[in-house]
Amino acid sequence: MNVTVIGTGFVGVVTAGVFAHFDNDVFALDVLADKINSLSKGEVPFYEPKLSELVGEGIAKGKLTFTTDYTTAIKDADVIMISVGTPSAADGTADLKYLKSAAASLAPHLKDGTIVAIKSTVPPGTNQIVREIIEKSTSKNFHLVSLPEFLKEGSAVDDTMHPDRVVIGATDKKVIDLLLALHEPISGTRIIVSPESAQMAKYASNAYLAQRITFINQVANLCEKNGANIDEVTKVMGADSRIGSHYWYPGLGYGGSCFPKDVKELAAYSLSINEGDGLFVKLDELNDTRIPKLMNKFEEKVGGFEGKTVAVLGLSFKPNTDDMREAPALKVIPILQQKGAEVRAFDPKANAIARIMFDPAVIVDSLDEAVRNSDIVMVLVEWPEFTTKQPEYFKHIMSGNYFIDARNQFNRREFENSGLTYIGIGQS
Fold first, then answer.
1. In the structure, what pLDDT confidence band is assigned to residue 247 with cuts at 50, 70 and 90?
2. In this prediction, what percent of the chain has a pLDDT beyond 90?
């Protein structure tokens, strides 16, 4: 099929690369000429495992073309997927300006019968807004559907090729059949729902996962007061098949490009329909206050940060990505500096971005450089480069002995046996 993806951010590039891999003729469209020029050379402007290879393959096979030209990208498209950003507005609601702009720009170039699929995360009811925009500039018949994505940064290529489910928000049988055919090489359960249900399901899925993280962090707070160990508690909970052992991440809260934004937008949406006293507002509040409260606890346990050198390990919001949107480091490092600490920070992939966001002198080039002669080591992200290190490594090159494991990835007993003072999450 002829597929056009509008928006070459994270979701757009992955989507375009995967559908090109399955021998569709794909145009990836963006208004940013510099980005399109780089992508046309196979240069992906962010780190995601397997993605550069996938893009290079699509370009080499002649199946993937990057362009800024709407006429070229739209005129022959059977399916158009809008994957532009929907950042949160000042009031917390989803800002649809990029989506509206894309709809207005594509409309004059549509061929009859094209499927326009909204892949961006948007609140239910958005399809009607987009339909009205498109109908102002075309008399052609078109079909408007929802195709939400559920991929994760760090495993996006595999998630797109082998998802748990493919959700198609559409009601016309011919359209559904065509979209099923387009997704045939992709594994996963097919779920056909209304566009509104598809869009609500995307928000609800992310909010539920964010809730699991927030819930277990609240339990961890109690464990620190009563002698229980959060890792043992989650082991017991996970043995219940109704609960499961997956996705318990006690730590500094949820971050990244999706969970914080989507929970805030769901909270704002709840307020807009007079449901503002519900869970989502509180969920957002608990996550926003999580790091400052933990940092106060850490400060007390290490006898203050003033005058101490702190090695901060992990600057992206999770492993296998260089994305720093809502990363814990963005709050942790300023707090440390405000409290008088000298910070040396390192990340295997996010250093270049971090040097733009912080004083470049704070970011060092290696793990050794960050840890050497530090008084405190603080691991914020469970990169394998960190978690595979033995306690003797840290003990040998540190000056102090405080080791803060904000992801509960290290063996407490081993670190304490080596003479380090181990501080984890949810452990008294």
1. confident
2. 93
Write down the pLDDT at residue 202: 96
Domains in the chain: how many in total? 2
Is 413 buried (19+), middle (13-18) or exposed (0-12) by CB count in 10 A? exposed
CB 182 within 8 A of CB 170: no
Catalytic position from the list 84, 103, 258, 406: 258
Residue 6 sits in a domain whose CATH number is 3.40.50.720
258 is catalytic: yes
Which tens digit of pLDDT belongs to each residue from 42-96? 999 999 999 999 999 999 999 999 999 999 999 999 999 999 999 999 888 999 9
Neighbours of 196 (CB within 10 A): 16
pLDDT of residue 278: 77
Give the pLDDT band of residue 104 (cuts 50, 70, 90). Answer: very high
In a domain, 358, yes or no: yes
Question: Which residue, of 150, 184, 218, is where some domain finishes?
Answer: 184
Q: Are 364 and 245 contained in the same domain?
A: yes
Contact of 110 with 133, CB cutoff 8 Å: no
Measured distance CA(118)–CA(126) in Å, rounded: 9
Task: Look at residue 264 and tell me if it is in a domain.
Answer: yes
Q: Are residues 152 and 254 in the same domain?
A: no
pLDDT digits (tens, 9 = 90+) for 114-131: 999 999 999 999 999 999
- Count Cα neighbours of 252 within 13 Å in the Cβ-side half-sphere: 28
Pair (305, 230) in one structural domain: yes
CA separation (Å) from 86 to 12, 38, 91, 378?
13, 23, 13, 33
In this prediction, residue 248 carries a pLDDT of: 87
In the chain, count H helices and then E strands. 18, 13
CB 30 within 8 A of CB 8: yes
Same domain, 138 and 240: no
Q: Note whether 216 and 179 are same-domain residues.
A: no
Would you say residue 203 lies in a domain? no
Flag whether 194 is in a domain. no
Same domain, 152 and 238: no
Q: Are residues 139 and 252 in the same domain?
A: no
Indicate the DSSP class of residue 215.
Answer: H
Domain hosting residue 10, numbered range: 2-162+174-184
Where does the pLDDT of residue 246 fall: very low under 50, low under 70, confident under 90, or very high at 90 and above? confident
* Closest among 234, 59, 80, 52 to 145, alpha carbons compared: 80
pTM exceeding 0.85: yes
3-state secondary structure of 134: helix
Same structural domain, 179 and 231: no
